[in-house]
Write a structure and sequence with these properties.
single chain; transmembrane; membrane; alpha+beta; 4-stranded antiparallel sheet
Length: 207
């Protein structure tokens, strides 16, 4: 109506009604874009060459374990058969000597396990290492690449209480280390990730 002013007026700088909570800035402003980027999850992926190298390591570790199992099976089998053959040749066949052959079950089981390791295809490393959301970090599973490079299962950590650090290493270069009280730390080689570790550190610190 003429002469009547509305009690709802926009703020001078933001264009928002007075008294409304801050919602991340006016669309199109730098503050709005920064808030939107923080709300979007940061997906950190493994580099393709790192995935190929990991698969090569897994295949090599399985071949070594499979061949070692077959060699041990052959050795144990010889330790059982040679005495049995020698005793049978000297004293003749005796039924009680068959009990000694029962020990061949151990090398036989080793041989079966070794052959399975050699035939089993290696588990490929997934494309995604982890994703950082406004509330949590979701880790994807990492298959083991041998005793020296143990794997890690999938897990979710709340952002609160999680820290991220970059630790230099002369042997493997910079490492991204994520820690949380009561949980096993997560370590990633910076050279294997497609995201700069400093970006991950700032994202976790700014959540």
């Amino acid at each position: 109506m003429p002469g009547v002013r509305s009690g709802r007026r926009d703020g001078p700088a933001t264009g928002r009604p007075r008294g409304t909570p801050y919602d991340g800035g006016v669309p199109g402003t730098p503050e709005h874009h920064q808030t939107a980027r923080r709300a979007e999850p940061l997906v950190v992926r493994f580099r393709p060459d790192a995935r190929r190298e990991h698969q090569r390591r897994v295949a090599g570790a399985r071949r070594r374990r499979g061949r070692a199992a077959l060699a041990l099976a052959a050795l144990l089998g010889a330790l059982v058969l040679v005495p049995w053959v020698a005793v049978t040749a000297v004293e003749g066949f005796e039924p009680r000597g068959l009990a000694l052959l029962g020990l061949l079950a151990v090398p036989a089981a080793l041989a079966v396990w070794g052959r399975r390791l050699l035939r089993r295809p290696p588990v490929a490393l997934g494309a995604v290492a982890f994703a950082i959301t406004p509330d949590e970090i979701r880790f994807e599973p990492v298959p083991s690449a041998g005793p020296a490079l143990g794997g890690s299962p999938a897990a979710s950590w709340p952002i609160a209480g999680t820290t991220a650090d970059i630790e230099p290493s002369r042997m493997v270069g910079d490492r991204l280390v994520l820690r949380r009280p009561g949980a096993r730390r997560r370590v990633y080689l910076a050279a294997t990730l497609d995201t700069d570790p400093t970006t991950v550190v700032s994202q976790i610190a700014g959540r």
